[in-house]
Amino acid sequence: MKAFLAALALVSAQLAAAHYTLPDLIANGTTFADWVYVRTTQNHYSNAPITDVNSTEFRCYELDMNATPGETQIATVEAGSTIGFKADNTFYHPGYFSAYMSPASPAANSPEAGTGQTWFKIWEDPPVFENGQLVFPSTSISEITFTIPKSLPSGQYLVRGEQIALHVASSVGGAQFYIGCAQLNVINGGDGKPEPLVSIPGVYTGYEPGILINIYDLPANYPGYTSPGPAVWQG
Question: I need a surface site. Which of 66, 139, 158, 228 has the fewest CB within 10 A?
Answer without folding.
Answer: 66
